[in-house]
Structures are given as C-alpha cells and as structure tokens.
Amino acid sequence: MTLHGKVAVVTGGSRGIGRAVACALAREGAALTLCARDRVALEKAAAELEASGAQVLAIQADVAQAPQVEQVVEGCLERFGSVDILVNNAGITRDNLLLRMKDEEWEAVLSTNLKGVFHCTRAVLRPMLKQRGGRIINLTSVVGVMGNAGQANYVAAKAGIIGLTKAAAKEVASRGITVNAVAPGFIETDMTHALDPGRQEEIRSKIPLGRFGTPEEVAELVVFLASDRAAYITGQVLHINGGLWM
Ligand code: NAP
Predict the structure, then answer these.
(1) pTM, full prediction
(2) Among 78, 97, 161, 234, which is 20 to 30 Å from 152 by CA?
(3) pLDDT of residue 1
(4) Domain encompassing residue 64
C-alpha cells in the first residue's frame, strides 16, 4: 500500500470518477474525507467504502460555498489530524450554445468547477504548508485544451483549472506541495450517459482506442500522482483520453 497513513479529501466522492478515486485511494491505505451535495448518495458511498475496511468521513457540502468547504477541511483535520491529498473532482455541466447560454448556466458551472477548486485549494493550503508537504490533483478535461461547441462555460472553467494548477504549483513548490491536473477524455459516468446516444457514438468514432474510459482508469492516474512515486511532477496536465487528443 503506497498511501498508508495518508489522509485524502475527495470532492464529489459519491459517484463517477470521484467515487472510483476514493476506492483506489482507500485500497492504497489512505483515510478519506468525502463531500458532495446529495447526502443520501454520499452516505451510501461512504458506507460501502467503510464496509471494505476504509476510514471514511462524509460531509455534505457544496464546493461553490466557501464556508462549507472550510467545514469539510476542519472536519477532516479534527477526525484524522492532517490533510495530505486533495482531489478536486466535483464538477457539473450545463451545456448550451453561446447565443442561448443563460447567466445561471455560466455561473453554476464556473462556481462549481473553477471557484470550487479555488475554495478547496485555499482551504487545504494552511495545513499542507505547515506539514511542508501535500498533493493537490485537479480534474480538468480534454475539452479544456481542445475546446468544445456547446460547452463554453465548462471549457472556460476547465481551461481555468489548468491555469490555476500552474500558478498554485509555482506558489507552493518550495514547501514540498505538488499541484497537477488530470485531463480525462470521455469517461463512462452519469455525466457522459446524459449525452444522447448519437452524440456518444460520434465521439466514440473519434477515439483511437475505440471506447470511453472507465472511472477506475482515471483513478489509477490520480493515485499515482498522489503517491511518493510522483514527487518530481508538478504543474503538469496529465492526459488520459484513449488517444482522442494527442
Ligand atoms: P458525475 O458522475 O456527474 O459526478 C460528479 C460528482 O461531483 C458527484 O459526486 C456530485 O455529487 C459531485 N458534485 C457536483 N457538484 C458539486 C458541488 N457543487 N459540490 C460538491 N460536490 C459536487 O461526474 P464525473 O463524470 O465523475 O466527473 C468528475 C470530474 O471529472 C468532473 O470535474 C468532470 O468535469 C471531470 N471530467 C469528467 C469526464 C467524463 O467524461 N465523465 C471527462 C473529463 C473530465 P452531488 O451531485 O451530490 O453534489
């Protein structure tokens, strides 16, 4: 186990990629603090992880709300005494063409996907700086580098995460904290199941490996970045997309 004794916070740990990341971190021995907005789904995911032997704290929180994020980090510190790994995974889509995009759609996506990353990063920095070490891993997306019609809000947020990752990496490198981004292509989760089947097929036809990825495949990359083996990697965007973008 590569993460024995480490403590991780995973936002959006109740479903999809976040849940797979939580499982993989737990398998490697990390204790977990998970947050999401839907308490029922969150507690179900936490109970399943605990049943497999993991130490899990579940706190209902919206990453767009700074005070709620502070409570998650305080709760983690109270229960486990440190925070070594932050996985900024919580994300939503509100797709629309630019001409039709409503202010609410823009704001919802930017608040959760980009401001949420800012809130969580700021909240863990004090304990990580004190510990003189930590790992921050931000979920961006292939569309943050490629662009995507109908997703200007989401693409702007994901491109923003890449900039935030690089700025933060430079700011905290001297304290032994690494900050990296993982950019998945299309992964089998509720987020992509919401796309209409014709669109899913069109995307699949453009992926050299011929299929969507799995949440578990993304989780393996996150675990690697969280481990000591990735100590010399910071400020990078690691792509995992079946060859869709190269
Ligand atoms: P998902 O299945 O829709 O799960 C999203 C998770 O985030 C859920 O646990 C959700 O729980 C939580 N969440 C959403 N808004 C939140 C908020 N404001 N505060 C706290 N938690 C929140 O999504 P996914 O496909 O696993 O995506 C995970 C991350 O990977 C996202 O950042 C996404 O943009 C990125 N990504 C996904 C793909 C893909 O193809 N699936 C590709 C590239 C990047 P609640 O709804 O209960 O809050």
Answers:
(1) 0.98
(2) 234
(3) 76
(4) 7-240
